[in-house]
């Protein structure tokens, strides 16, 4: 198996926010479906998409599935991510790169939101 998962997150100026994405990556890596799992951020944080793809390629990965950790199919998913992936593909034409759908609607999200609404609430 020479396939890797690349989780694409937006990024944030708020300190420590990237830790959530790394926790997700570690869980997916432990599941063993992919030879490797990396994270990339579109803005504010590093590594960026090209850096993460280069890291995977340097490990001998020949197939990458880029999975946007986004709820909506907005401009990042429709334009920015595909454009960045095409740039990387031009540099590494031997690597197969596929773009997964964003998270979008999923019944499991409803359960998470409901659970959080019953949890530790912050009074305003």
List keywords for this structure.
alpha/beta; 4 helices; Rossmann fold; 4-stranded parallel sheet; metal-binding; 4 strands; 124 residues; single chain
Describe this structure in words.
Helix 2 packs across helix 3 (75-91). The mean pLDDT is 96. The chain is built from four helices and four strands. The protein is α/β, with parallel strands linked by helices. The protein is 42% helix and 19% strand. It has one domain (3-117): Rossmann fold, CATH 3.40.50. The chain starts with a strand and ends in a 7-residue tail after the last helix. The longest helix has 17 residues, at 75-91. It has a four-stranded parallel β-sheet with strand order 2-1-3-4, with helices on both faces. It comes from Biomaibacter acetigenes. Pfam families: CbiX (PF01903). This is Cobalamin biosynthesis protein CbiX.
Distance between the termini: 50 Å
Q: What is the average per-residue confidence, as pLDDT, rounded to a whole number?
A: 96
Instruction: Indicate the low-confidence ranges by residue numbers.
Output: none
What count of structural domains? 1
CATH topology: Rossmann fold
CATH architecture: 3-Layer(aba) Sandwich
| Helix-strand topology string | EHEHEHEH
Q: CATH class, anyone? A: Alpha Beta
How are the strands of the biggest sheet laid out side by side?
2-1-3-4
Name the shape in a single word.
globular
Helix percent reads: 40-55%
